[in-house]
Amino acid sequence: MARYGKNIIFQTNWPEDTFDEMQQKLVEQFPEVVRDIENTICKIVDIVIDLPPEKVLQRAWGEMAVHHMGMASESDADADDVVSLRMVDYLQSVIASVKPKGPPKDEVEEDDWQVLRDSVEELFNKLNIDYQISKTALRRKEDPDFDIEYEEFYYKAQMYWCNIRGHRYLYHEEEHFIDLVSPHSDILSTLFGITAERLVTEISKIQHALTRGIIEAGLELKEFQKVTMDALEPLLRDNEKVTQDEIRELMAGVIRDNGWEEWQADVFGRFLGLDLFDLEKVTQIPKLLLNELAWEQGQDVEFFADGEYKGWPLRIWPIFKRPFIKLNERYYCFDLYSLLDNFYRVLQKRVIALNEAYRTEWNKKQKEISEELPFKYLLKLLPGATIYRSVYYKWHSGDARNKQWCEADGLLIYDDHLFIIEVKAGAFTYTSPANDFPAYIESIKNLVLKPAVQGKRFLEYLKSDKTVDIFDESHIQVGQLSSEDFRHITICPITLDTFTELAAQSQHLKALGVDVGDSPVWSISIDDLRVYSDVFVNPLIFLHFVEQRMRGFKSDIIQTDDELDHLGLYIKHNVYTQYAKELQAGSKAQLNFIGYRSDVDKYFTEKLHEPSTPSPLNQEMPEYLVEIVRVLSESGKQGRSSVASYLLDCGGSWRNNIADGIGKTLASQKIHKRPLPLSTYGDIRLTIFCWQDSFLPRNEEMAIDHSRAAMLVTGDNDRLILELFFTSEGVLKDVDWSNVTLSDVSDSDMERLKSIANTLKARRIEKAGKIGRNDPCPCGSGKKYKKCCLQQ
């Protein structure tokens, strides 16, 4: 194993028989590992039931806050940081599941706390490492059909279940809940006496209390101390010889005389007490709803029910089902991520439990909003796009020979890009992968495979004829499409629930029976689409990213554990599939790209505190290239995406050379008062003309002749002419382009072009000065000088 920055390269080379010997030892130690885990869980329970639960969770939250304060990216977290999270969510799950045997201790003593923390750390270390390795070895031995790729995903699914929290950025949580909860305002008012808008506001208050609350309380405590000390000082000057008890009495008098008792209680309650977690103090959520969302101590009967994985993190955690805890008749929230990750689905279950008749209406509204949201964010990314919703067409469905009416959830057209949208509003399985991995796989099939198949069905229809008709739900024709109009077609299954870690690997899920085929499929959640809509400000750059993302789909090398790592890879390495290929260098090593989303994490952390923060998530790009892509985007000209992608495909040195060449050309043309074309050769076949208002108007015929002559020099089959139109002040105002070939050139024109080509070659040779025999020929042919113009 080797690590290069954010990249980890794996390659194994076991000596003969060593691997089998190691596997046998792991099989033999498996029963002992299971016993160790169960004993550790029993130890945790014995400690927890003897301690005051609210103080355990308060201290756990405090240590977690210290570990994560100032942390802008999850990739910065170390082992202690991760354990601090489990000290909150796992311990709250234990408290919700185990009844106390008697009155708890008054305080959490340091010795008890250290043993408890060490035990939780040991539990998750054993579970994440020892148990998984030995269990895999056991399955390898006992299962004749053992498949290591299937096993890898089984392992990953359990790791995500036990350790991954935070489905979306905190910055997006309010918008997320507004999108999803708002349609159910009437039933929330009926059942709980609170509107959806008000409920989202109250959830935001909890988020604020558990993120900024302790900082604000600390600042206010300092202010309180300053104000009270300022009021106390005159009294101390008059009483120089006072005891500590007398000072406390004087301070109490100052606070009482100034009416600061409530202020004192409020500040100390938030900074030192439980007020930041007390939901009736932080929010105005009705008690009836609080009760539906909270466990009392020992109320959950499933987590520690007899059977496999009793009390293990591999079961469904109580905190996943109800995020709040009720202690001493007060309702508390200590774990923000469990609340935000699960709140929508928990609310759905509680509403339907109280009003079963509303199930159909909930599902109906959920489907409607799920089909609306993808277009909301795609239109933000691609303003002005053409949209068709609920598209019907006649094609073969399943094994049916006759054509039947089929539906695509939507189509989005932007320039020469077509997105085939298939939306799934269903919930990702609530079952633990350890208990029922087949159900877990079935969920992936429902959310990825089925919509991918539906998208491919429309793609087959689109390619079945030169033009095809599309219809609305009443089977009235609404449009006609031709596959020839689209340079890039993306099948895009979009899910309401987030399963970013597995969606990012959809092309590698064949071992699970989830074979989405060879056509690129971009499985993405609405949460990730919302992120992209805040990152990309230029539609053409977003489309170029989509093109690279689909190259990533086709790559056997690219392995990431997160959709947003693809974004990070794109920002850092542009055509990142080529970067991965060069990094692998023909070996069979497995590459895993980790932490590439860290800059994305940091941006949204900053945006949480300052919403107006502009996106810094841009590739390094010279200003002229930025301006060209901007003007192309604003032009609305058909084919602009193709030109932008051609330029954006260029690597850093190519980009700089092109930009530098434009700058030098503009400066030289002012002196020479004639066009000075800028041409590139090799993989980038491009000729640029810079027309300038006041003294250099466009000469289209000259541009075509020069470009074709350049093609004769280099032996190119085609070439892109890029024409840049500048004002007299050197400001780019328009971009035009054309693709030229030699196929339609007449014999007489060909002779004229050859003459131009010879003149062009001679001029370049003269300009180059002294040339070495083995140097690249300055004419641009790509040959060495000795095998090119030196012979002429």
Automatic annotation (TrEMBL):
Pfam families: SEC-C
Gene3D superfamilies from the UniProt entry: 3.10.450.50
Name the record gives this protein: Preprotein translocase subunit SecA
The organism of origin for this protein: Candidatus Tenderia electrophaga
